[in-house]
Design brief:
- With 327 residues, the protein is an alpha/beta fold.
- Helix content is 45%, strand content 18%.
- It has helices spanning 2-26, 44-60, 75-82, 96-100, 102-105, 113-116, 145-154, 169-181, 193-201, 214-219, 267-282, 284-290, 301-322; strands at residues 33-37, 64-68, 90-95, 117-127, 129-132, 160-163, 186-189, 207-210, 224-228, 254-262, 295-296.
- Helix 2 links the parallel strand 1 (33-37) and strand 2 (64-68).
- Helix 1 runs parallel beside helix 11 (267-282), helix 2 crosses helix 11 (267-282) and helix 8 (169-181) crosses helix 13 (301-322).
Length: 327
């Protein structure tokens, strides 16, 4: 009798917990939700977070408020979300580096991307554009990736390229290309992607994996695009091949922005947020706004987790082979 009573009590407890979780999801959200962004206002992550947050707020009836905690390549905001209550009221919007690179580059990181976060979905994905300056006499005749590789092989260790700093995606993309092509390059780190773009326009460096801000410059003839870093071509530059198409199969590095919640957030809340973000991203009006930051790209939580695991492993291998150290 006692054993039966204990079993019935356990079943009752589980049912009560299930009903509580279901009720929580039904009335969620009942107060404002904070979206923590680890970068300054006006940057890609901030812009995406505000576009999505406005849509979520309108649809779910509570404000989704962006809070910028810039610094340490997004680590300050990520740590804040990792330590927050898993009640559905603290969300992380971040870029790929915060999740796939920081764990490899920084020894003092205080969050674990896999153990501390529940992935919701990516929202936009943006390839990098490999560019040279056609007005630079040293690169005037470089029109393809093969030309760039040939120039580097003709003068080992003499070709300098720029990036937005040690360990960022532009740096890793060029190092991956160098590893695949068997060439030696000189890395010139700038303080941000915009500065590296200025550097190639000023002919301080010969090549750069540039963000999408390069597209207008390419169309204006100020930069020449050799390839894009993603697995698929960029719709804005349909005639520019991917690096993979240019002779390096499997090359695929992109900058993405996505959303996460604390790991133990109730499943119904995770499902609600995932579905609402995906629905928002597919809305033509929202997608048009997001298009300024990249190609709209949404994933299931399982596919998102698999993408993160794959990229983390691949980028760690690039970092180790190139002996890249964080600034």
């Amino acid at each position: 009798m006692q054993r039966t009573a204990r079993l019935l009590a356990l079943i009752a407890g589980l049912c009560a917990a299930a009903l509580t979780t279901e009720a929580l999801a039904q009335k969620y959200p009942s107060r404002p939700v904070k979206i923590m962004v680890g970068f300054s206002a006006g940057g890609p992550v901030d812009v995406v977070a505000r576009i999505v947050g406005d849509r979520l707020g309108n649809k779910l009836g509570q404000p989704f408020v962006v809070e910028n905690r810039a610094g340490a390549n997004g680590m300050i905001a990520a740590e804040g979300v990792a330590r927050a209550d898993a009640d559905g009221y603290t969300m992380l919007a971040c870029n790929s580096s915060t999740i796939t690179l920081n764990k490899t580059l920084f020894k003092d990181i205080r969050y674990d991307p896999e153990k501390d976060f529940a992935p919701l979905t990516t929202v936009v994905s943006a390839p990098l554009v490999l560019v040279v300056n056609p007005e630079n006499p040293k690169t005037a005749d470089i029109k393809t990736v093969a030309d760039l590789v040939a120039a580097a092989k003709a003068a080992p260790g003499a070709l300098a390229y720029g990036s937005g700093g040690n360990g960022n995606l532009a740096h890793l993309a060029m190092e991956l290309l160098a590893q695949k092509a068997g060439i030696k390059l000189i890395h010139v780190p700038y303080r941000g992607g915009a500065a590296s773009e200025v550097g190639i326009l000023a002919q301080e460096v010969l090549a750069v994996f540039d963000p999408l801000s390069a597209v207008p410059l390419v169309k204006a003839g100020k930069l020449r695009a050799l390839a894009v870093s993603s697995a698929e071509r960029l719709p804005a530059l349909p005639d520019v091949p991917t690096v993979a198409e240019a002779g390096y199969p499997g090359f695929d590095i992109s900058f993405w922005v996505g959303f996460f919640m604390p790991k133990t957030t109730p499943a119904p809340i995770l499902q609600t947020l995932h579905q609402e973000i995906v629905t928002a991203a597919k809305d033509p009006a929202v997608a048009d706004k997001l298009g300024s930051q990249g190609v709209v790209s949404v994933l299931s939580p399982a596919d998102y987790a698999a993408k993160i695991a794959k990229e983390t492993k691949e980028l760690a291998e690039v970092v180790a082979a190139a002996n890249i150290k964080a600034e």
